[in-house]
Amino acid sequence: MPRFSRRELIPVLAATLLIGAIFAIAWLTARGEYAGLRWMHGVPRATLASPRVGPAVYSGTVVGPEDRVTPLGRRTAGHWWWVVDRSRGEDGTTVCHTRVRDGMRLVDGDRVVRLTMFETAGDSSLLSDHRTWDWRDAMVFDLGSTPEYSSRTIPRAASRCTGRRLEYTERWIPPGARVEVLACMRDGALGPCNGPLTGALSIPNLDVHRIRRAREVRKAVRAACGISAVLLSALTTFLVARSRRVFTPMRARPASAT
Question: Are 62 and 77 in contact (CB under 8 A)?
Fold first, then answer.
């Protein structure tokens, strides 16, 4: 069996430590998404007519104040808009933004319940098929395939935003959109919960958000496995080359004359 010197063991040890570090980074990157995904699978369903104590998933349609419109005049149940200065760096810099999500209500038949979970929360993650990178916060809006609108024309309501090369974008929840909400019923309203997710609203259902969250976890695992496979391949090449050097038979000596 070949013996390796301490110097030759350094690449083996370094590769092992590096692979461990890669998976640790992958776990830290996807830990929040995984914790939220696992927690969501254990949350039961309920109805506004028969609510549950604690976290539950409620379905219905979402509405907002009748006079709610975006700066472009689009009617919404809730919306977000922001202005980015594209002259500042490759991705630009957000120079101003507004979110409007108070006063929303969930409707299921003749039952109407206020969504106070979004009124008491601070920041929230805003996700969709067009926006998949915002995983910062425990309160989540997932707008699914709802489109977004962007324009270089800045509406009057956003005239306070200044910059050299501005771009306006707005996202919205259509009034009457079918949704599922993960929340906790308190005092006749749907409020935030205590958990990896404090609340979520997803169009048209929470399966959309579950699938998106699972993809983020798989993405981190695939990246770690890919990099580790490259390192293992390089390590295998090194070990095979070392073994060949050790086991190469010595050239036979010529027989001595008698």
Answer: yes
Helices (H), 163-255: 206-247
Residues found in the chain: 258
Tokens of residue 232, six digits: 């293992």
Start-to-end CA span in the chain (Å): 36
Tokens representing 180? 């599922």
Strand, coil or helix: 105: strand
- In degrees, rounded to 5, the angle at the alpha carbon of residue 93 between the alpha carbons of residues 87 and 96 is 115
Please write the tens of the pLDDT for every residue from 16-64: 777 777 767 766 666 666 677 788 888 999 999 999 999 999 999 999 9
Burial of 239 (0-12, 13-18, 19+ CB in 10 A): middle
Nearest Cα to 95, choosing from 106, 87, 84, 110?
84
Q: Which of 104, 127, 116, 135 is nearest to 35 (CA)?
A: 135
Contact 61, 178 (CB under 8 A): yes
Encoding tokens for residue 76? 């919404």
Written as six digits, the tokens of 235 are: 């390590």
Residues linked to residue 142 through DSSP beta bridges, in sequence order:
127, 202
Both tokens of residue 26?
Answer: 């992958």
Sign of CA dihedral 153, 159, 164, 166: negative
User: How far is Cα 77 from Cα 146, in angstroms, rounded to an integer?
Assistant: 13
Tell me the whole-structure pTM to 2 decimals. Answer: 0.76
